[in-house]
C-alpha cells in the first residue's frame, strides 16, 4: 500500500454508469427530460467541474453520448453496477492517465453534491482504498472512488461470485465511507443521492429541480 501525501491534488477521471435496464421506469431513464434537459446531461454538468475527464458506461448502440467516450461492460448479461465499475477501471488502465482512482456515479441521481470528489478524496489514506458516499445512514456504493489497483480482483469477483453484489466486494478491501448532509428545499429535505427508479421518483425529481440551486 502506498500512502497518499495530499489527496486533494490527485486528478480523478470519472465514468457515469448507464448500463442498467431501467426496468422499473419502463424506458431509458438516463435520457428522460428533467426540466427539459436529459437527466444524463444534468449529471455530466454536475460532474465535469469535479473531475479530469468523463466517460459513459453504456451498451453499444446507446442513442446519445453527449460527445463522451462510450465504454461498454466487459462481461455480458447486464451483471449489475459492478460490471460498469469494472469496465471503468479497465478503461482507465488502458488510458494510462497516472491516476490511482476513478470516480463512478450512476445515471439516475441528478442532485449529487458539488463537493463529492473533494470530500471522497480527502478520506483516502492509501492508494488501495475504496471510498463510497453515505447519506441519512444509507450507503451509496455506486458513488465511489475505486482504486485502479483493484481492477483484476474486481474482474475476478465479477466472473466468479454468484451474487455480484458491491457490498460483498467491499469485504475484500479497505472501504471508507463519507457522510453527506441532506439539502433543505421548499419541497422538503432532499437526499443528495436521491435516485430515480420509477415514474413516481421522476415526478419527485421534477419537483426538487424547481428548488434546487446548490
Ligand atoms: N454497466 C452497468 N450498469 C448497470 C447495470 N445495472 C445497473 N447499472 C447502473 O447502476 C445504476 C443503479 O442501477 P439501478 O438503479 O438498478 O438502475 P437500472 O438497473 O437501470 O434500473 P432497474 O432495471 O429498474 O433496476 C444505474 O446508473 C444503472 O445504469 C449493469 O448491468 N451494467
Ligand atoms: Mg437495477
What does this structure look like?
- It is a single chain.
- The protein has helices spanning 39-47, 81-95, 116-122, 151-160, 166-170, 199-211, and strands at residues 13-17, 33-34, 37-38, 53-57, 101-106, 130-135, 138-147, 175-179.
- It has 214 residues and is an alpha/beta fold.
- The protein has one domain: Alpha-Beta Complex (Spore Coat Polysaccharide Biosynthesis Protein SpsA, Chain A), CATH 3.90.550.
- The strands form two sheets. The protein has a six-stranded mixed sheet with strand order 4-1-5-7-6-8, sandwiched between helices. Strands 2-3 form a two-stranded antiparallel ribbon.
- Helix 2 packs antiparallel against helix 4.
- It starts with 12 loop residues before the first strand and ends with a helix.
- The structure holds guanosine-5'-triphosphate and magnesium ion (MG).
- Guanosine-5'-triphosphate (GTP) is lined by residues 17-24, 57, 73, 78-81, 83-84, 106-108, 142, 195, 197.
- The site of guanosine-5'-triphosphate has 22 residues, from helix 2.
Amino acid at each position: 500500500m502506498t500512502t497518499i501525501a495530499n489527496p486533494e491534488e490527485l486528478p480523478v477521471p470519472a465514468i457515469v454508469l448507464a448500463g442498467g435496464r431501467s426496468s422499473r421506469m419502463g424506458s431509458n431513464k438516463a435520457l428522460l427530460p428533467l426540466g427539459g434537459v436529459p437527466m444524463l446531461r444534468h449529471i455530466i454538468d454536475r460532474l465535469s467541474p469535479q473531475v479530469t475527464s468523463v466517460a459513459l458506461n453504456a451498451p453499444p448502440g446507446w442513442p446519445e453520448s453527449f460527445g463522451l467516450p462510450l465504454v461498454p461492460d466487459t462481461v455480458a448479461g447486464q451483471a449489475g453496477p459492478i460490471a460498469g465499475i469494472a469496465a471503468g477501471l479497465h478503461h482507465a488502465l488502458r488510458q494510462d492517465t497516472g491516476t490511482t482512482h476513478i470516480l463512478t456515479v450512476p445515471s439516475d441521481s441528478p442532485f449529487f453534491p458539488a463537493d463529492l470528489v473533494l470530500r471522497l478524496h480527502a478520506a483516502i489514506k492509501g492508494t488501495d482504498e475504496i471510498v463510497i458516499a453515505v447519506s441519512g445512514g444509507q450507503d451509496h456504493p455506486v458513488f465511489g472512488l475505486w482504486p485502479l489497483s483493484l481492477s483484476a480482483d474486481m474482474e475476478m469477483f465479477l466472473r466468479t461470485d454468484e451474487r455480484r453484489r458491491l457490498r460483498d466486494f467491499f469485504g475484500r478491501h479497505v472501504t471508507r465511507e463519507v457522510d453527506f448532509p441532506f439539502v433543505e428545499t421548499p419541497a422538503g429535505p432532499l437526499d443528495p443521492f436521491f435516485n430515480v427508479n420509477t415514474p413516481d421518483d421522476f415526478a419527485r425529481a421534477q419537483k426538487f429541480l424547481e428548488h434546487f440551486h446548490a
